[in-house]
């Protein structure tokens, strides 16, 4: 039978329903966990009308919890958590209107602002928080004093934090304020030790006054104000998953 114009690849229909990523949907199909109108389908590339009855593990795809990921501009003074025993504002307070159990991937310090990914996608969260995860994260730090060439060289080569040497970083001076003796320093790192950027800059003699994370991989804060979020597209999530898997395989 010739496919109709409304038919799409089965893995795409599952991914578009928000059940999981397209790659994961392919694995579900290959392992016999997907049925179409009650029949198990194992062949990748099978085309179906999105209106037919599709189930994963016996549950209709429209009944599965949707997986969503947001790019969130965390303001300063907000906890990267789902709750706080001191009753301070937490990241998930900004998603109270979503009927989903969301949580931040990783964390930003209470006094650090910037990009934080918020999701209910366990696969994505596990990959991005894996110790071997090596996707770049870019920060801007306002520091006391103006780092000289020697300090920048040391940061680029790696400094010692708690007895462990950091990986080489990309570091540059974004701007200098000679009158106030401050500088805005840009850093791109792929590690995620607690307070890493602050400790790196302190090691070379420059205390951080303000810190902001501008970018994670190819996701940035474009179009967002503090406290705002945007949902990542399916293609953006797929790209993040591919980057994470690729980096982990390369180790």
Characterise this structure.
- With 251 residues, the chain is an alpha+beta fold.
- The protein folds into three domains: 8-60, Roll (Structural Genomics Hypothetical 15.5 Kd Protein In mrcA-pckA Intergenic Region, Chain A), CATH 3.10.290; 69-131 and 222-250, Pseudouridine synthase I, catalytic domain, N-terminal subdomain (Alpha-Beta Plaits, 2-Layer Sandwich); 137-216, 2-Layer Sandwich (Alpha-Beta Plaits), CATH 3.30.70.
- It contains six helices and 17 strands.
- Strands 7, 8, 9, 10, 13, 14, 15, 16 and 17 form a nine-stranded mixed beta sheet that branches. A four-stranded antiparallel beta sheet has the order 3-2-5-6. A two-stranded antiparallel sheet has the order 1-4.
- A hairpin with a 2-residue loop joins strand 15 (208-216) and strand 16.
- Helix 1 (10-16) crosses helix 2 (22-30).
- Belongs to the pseudouridine synthase RsuA family.
- InterPro entries: PsdUridine_s_RsuA/RluB/E/F_cat, PsdUridine_synth_cat_dom_sf, PsdUridine_synth_RsuA/RluA, PsdUridine_synth_RsuA/RluB/E/F, PsdUridine_synth_RsuA/RluB_CS, RsuA_PseudoU_synthase, S4_RNA-bd, S4_RNA-bd_sf.
In short:
The protein has helices at 10-16, 22-30, 122-128, 149-157, 196-203, 234-250; strands spanning 8-9, 34-36, 39-40, 47-48, 54-56, 59-60, 69-74, 103-104, 112-119, 137-144, 160-161, 164-165, 170-177, 182-189, 208-216, 219-220, 229-231.
């Amino acid at each position: 039978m010739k496919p109709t114009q409304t038919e799409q690849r089965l893995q795409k229909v599952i991914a578009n329903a928000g059940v999981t990523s397209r790659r994961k949907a392919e694995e579900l199909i290959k392992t016999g966990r997907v049925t179409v109108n009650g029949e198990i389908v194992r062949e990748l590339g099978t085309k179906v009308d999105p209106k037919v009855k599709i189930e994963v593990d016996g549950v209709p795809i429209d009944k599965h919890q949707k997986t969503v990921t947001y790019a969130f501009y965390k303001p300063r003074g907000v906890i990267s958590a789902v709750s706080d025993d001191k009753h301070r504002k937490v990241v998930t307070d900004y998603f109270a209107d979503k009927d989903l159990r969301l949580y931040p991937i990783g964390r930003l310090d209470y006094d650090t602002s910037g990009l934080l990914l918020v999701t209910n996608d366990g696969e994505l969260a596990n990959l991005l928080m894996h110790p071997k995860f090596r996707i770049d994260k870019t920060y801007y730090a306002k520091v006391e004093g103006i780092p000289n060439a020697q300090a920048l060289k040391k940061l680029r080569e790696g400094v010692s934090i708690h007895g462990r040497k950091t990986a080489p970083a990309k570091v540059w001076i974004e701007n200098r304020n000679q009158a106030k003796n401050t500088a805005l320093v840009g850093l791109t790192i792929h590690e995620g030790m607690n307070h890493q950027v602050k400790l790196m800059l302190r090691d070379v003699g420059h205390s951080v006054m303000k810190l902001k994370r501008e970018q994670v991989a190819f996701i940035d804060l474009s179009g967002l104000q503090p406290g705002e979020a945007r949902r990542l597209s399916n293609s953006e999530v797929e790209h993040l998953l591919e980057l994470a898997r690729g980096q982990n395989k390369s180790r």
